[in-house]
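Worked example 2:
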Amino acid sequence: MLRDKNLIPLSHQHQHALALCVRIDRASPIPSEDLAAWESEFARLVQTEIQFHFAAEEAVVFPAACGFAEMIPLVDELVADHAWLRGHFAAAPKGSMSADDLQALAERLSAHIRKEERQLFERLQALMSAEDLALLGAKLDEALKGSTQVCAVPANATRLRPAR
């Protein structure tokens, strides 16, 4: 299903996070000398986008979804994912992650994003009226004002290298 224009800002942020997750997966196993650069890149994404993204979903999207009884179990899962992810995001700026920790975090974030895109957004678009989606979009625009829309260029250590 084509993404409703009111959910596109969240989908764009999902794309940014998925791109990092794919790069981590392709770079794995991450050499220990590059781990700090990967943690720094993850921490930057959390600081510039993900923290605002999660807050917007929790303040705007999840309450709207809970207006439909069938969506409540999915929202409960997504809220639990946010809690797990936040707890693990906190390790990135501290430089306390292992390569396996980083890989697990990327896998969990990727699965979470796909659940939101394929289940949450698809059902919301099917259940909500165009007017309700427009109202949701306006609230999201306000909630996402603090996020930074930047094109993050990978550091040398986090650039994917050609296969040998």
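The radius of gyration is 17 Å. DSSP finds five helices and no strands in the chain.
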